[in-house]
Amino acid sequence: LQPVPWWKDAVVYQIYPRSFQDSNGDGVGDLQGIISRLDYLKRLGVDVLWLSPMYASPNDDNGYDISDYRAIMTEFGTMDDFDELLREAHARGLRIMLDLVVNHTSDEHAWFVESRSDRASEKRDYYIWKQGQDGQPPTRWQSYFSGGVWELDEASGEYYLHLFSRKQPDLNWENPTVRREVYDMMRFWLDKGVDGWRMDTINMLSKNPAYPEGLPLPGTTLTDGQPHFLNGPRIHEFLQEMHREVLAHYDIVTVGETPGVTPDQGALYSGPERSELNMVFHFEHVFLGDEQAERGKWSNPPLALPDVKRVLARWQTGLYGRGWNSLYWDNHDQPRAVSRFGNDRQYRLESAKLLCTVLLFMQGTPYIYQGQELGMTNVSFESIEHYKDIETLNASKVLRDEHGWDDARILASVHARGRDNARTPMQWDDSPHAGFTNATPWIRVNPNYPDINAQAAEGDPNSVWYHYRDTIRLRKTLSVVRDGTFTLLDAEHPSLFCYVRDDGHDKLLVVALFSEEAQSYGIPDEFVGGEVLSNNYPSGEATPELHLQPHQALVIRAA
Ligand code: TEU
Ligand code: CA
């Protein structure tokens, strides 16, 4: 029987360094700021800290455009600061997971500068250069940041590919020298003692070599190229090579960010016998309905709980015994969980705790995003001028200029689904700028920080923070959460999310009411009279008929 790998019992906390804690008064978060908050993270009880990119970058996409993989971003500090952070984290029993961004680099990376300088450059093939035809780009694929994916380089008359911004040219993974450069860079960080990788857009590395045209997208001249660069023909070959060359030689954890995967594909990436990754992030729950919507996520189609339940249940059962799930509601690209899936007005506390319970009792490794443990909410800046995210700024121009949306409609979309919702500064206390900085922050703080901040939370036993701390502790005492089966109950119920975990010895029933209307619910006989292990309300017994309060979530152990 294989020993259980440590990451199956771990809880990961994602830090977006730019917005976590400023230590030197320039309004931008930094590594020394993270070091000053390690004790807070230790108290919360998390095990692994995933740092969003802290490498040298011009910050066109806030660090996801890397200009030197072996240097620290100037704003974040120095390599000595990083070494100190790693040492201080390890001294507290905390592991560090870095962000691997190797589908693309910054256009200011020395490799690209050389590649672009001359068609005969030996680094020309580090990137993807193609001739257009009749003055048109090779394909009309749409970029994730609006516009096309091919940028014309006047000097050579050739186009280079960028699935994201034009300052993020895609690396050419068909080139074995590129792959070797990446593996060397990974060893540089792993030899320092780094404990794992979150792998950015990792299922985009292998493109269909024919670069076929994509399917027309409504309301634009662009096409959907995703079928030709997601989960491409050589992706598993590349990941198995990365595993053989690098990953297999370290006791680390890996999670692939893989938009557009099904559970079956998830099993191919995360199956223990696959020698690829330990788990992946899918996006089916956070992008529900967006693909059918006219303007994608900006149309913000309404969420129906049965659809969310169906997706999560499919991943729980689809990977059971075949792979491993990551569990998340929130990250630096998504709106705040309590605003998207909960009720961030009169039931903010109850629904933030409910989301914690529903997430942490499923099978998989949970990922908590900075501020989620406080029930931080979306922000509603009154003007697009206060937004910083390239995805939002590019999209708002297209929505206005090509689709005629007025400012109010654009702002409503950005308020609901913009990535800056997750990037307003971490709210530490009720001092100016929420204790994030004593300067002007790079992005405005959410004005609700006087009520929602870590200092208030740690001073209030009824806070969301204590529910996260206690639920993390509780989950670790229950091996049924790691090993048990998952069975969804009442799949079609419009407002109740109920599931059972069972490992043959222990059985748990999770009941969560995603509604502000009180509701009754009859529980299976085996749970009647059982111990209530977790409850986000002061009272609630395991009676045959539960009388649930708005956004109440309970965990009952079979008697
Ligand atoms: O995101 C990959 C991705 O698919 C993005 O399009 C994201 O899902 C979308 O913007 C959500 O609206 C990764 C990083 O997480 C993101 O921050 C980067 O901007 C992107 O890759 C490019 O590196
Ligand atoms: Ca700083």
Automatic annotation (TrEMBL):
Residues forming the Glycosyl hydrolase family 13 catalytic domain are 14-423
- What InterPro entries is this protein classified in? GH (IPR017853), GH13_cat_dom (IPR006047), Glyco_hydro_b (IPR013780), O16G_dom_2 (IPR045857)
- Annotated Gene3D superfamilies: Glycosidases, Golgi alpha-mannosidase II, Oligo-1,6-glucosidase, Domain 2
Query: Any idea which GO molecular function terms this record carries?
Result: alpha-amylase activity
For whether the record's keyword set contains Iron, the answer is: no
Question: Which branch of life, at top level?
Answer: Bacteria
> Which UniProt keyword terms apply here?
Glycosidase, Hydrolase
Question: What is the similarity comment for this entry?
Answer: Belongs to the glycosyl hydrolase 13 family.
Q: What is this protein called?
A: Glycosidase
Taxonomic classification: Bacteria, Thermotogati, Deinococcota, Deinococci, Deinococcales
